[in-house]
Specification:
five-stranded mixed β-barrel; SH3 type barrels; mainly beta; 3 domains; 219 residues; 11% helix; 38% strand; Type Iii Antifreeze Protein Isoform Hplc 12
Amino acid sequence: MLAGAVAAADFHPLADIRRAATEFASHKIVANGADSAIEAGHLDPRLRLKRCAQPLAAEPLSRRNNTSNMTVMVKCEGAKPWTVYVPVTIKSYITVAVAKRPLARGIPVTADDLSFEQREISRLTGGYFTHGDRLLGRAPKRSLPRGSVVSPRDLDIQKVIRKGTRISIVAESNGISVRMPGKALQDAGAGEQIQVENLSSKRTVIGTVLDPDTVRVAM
């Protein structure tokens, strides 16, 4: 029994190796205000590595690791060096807007339609909202069930110009900018194409919405 205890003392504890991988990952992730849970994968209990006489070193196996998984190389750089590859899973949680009740297609979202809950970021492939002000008044493109995360791709682009609104038409070319009065002929959101009437020439032109007051057209 004594011989077995002495032999065990000669091997580096696997828990130390997993801890080194976890601590490395915790310093590398960018949480963006999220709460994160980091877990190192299990190592084969039959693994026997010479006890390292100095602190373990760690570095990523690849610089292309994503935010939810990475492989960490844990190294002993002593007289008898060794390297172990430890898979690490990273789960980050952030508070996002979810549907408090079923949301109907085409009906603008109100504050009463929303609640805010923590969800795991890697599952939010369609994006998410952390504040309600960016989605209030926008209408779902499809019905959303209660409890679903509200993502940008679920909503229509917010209309910043309404049909009949007086706007400024800006034409730019070679550093020259000409501004003229116009009228929107349809609803449109920022960055969308819109038909507008040039009130000076009475011509209908197509431009791009810059903001609630301005549409840019090609000169």
